[in-house]
Amino acid sequence: MKITINGQHFELADNANVAQGLTQFAAKEPFAVALNGQFIPRSQCDTTLLNEGDSIELLSPIQGG
Q1: Do you know which Pfam families this protein is assigned to (predicted)?
Q2: I need a labelling partner for 14 at 20 to 30 A (CA). Which of 1, 5, 23, 41 fits?
Q3: What is the pLDDT of residues 27-44, one digit of tens each?
Q4: Which pTM does this prediction carry?
């Protein structure tokens, strides 16, 4: 199936979950995960299945003052 992670297109096996998508992307901590605009707790990444055309956004914290 085809998904998008931070604007990049990826091909994953059918029945892949969010955690597998993050592994394919080689995501580096720390980050928050949004699937199709909805926050996904890290504890649910292993059990949240992806569908064709899904979009994952990884949001990294920004420090400032």
Answers
A1: ThiS
A2: 41
A3: 988 999 999 999 999 999
A4: 0.89
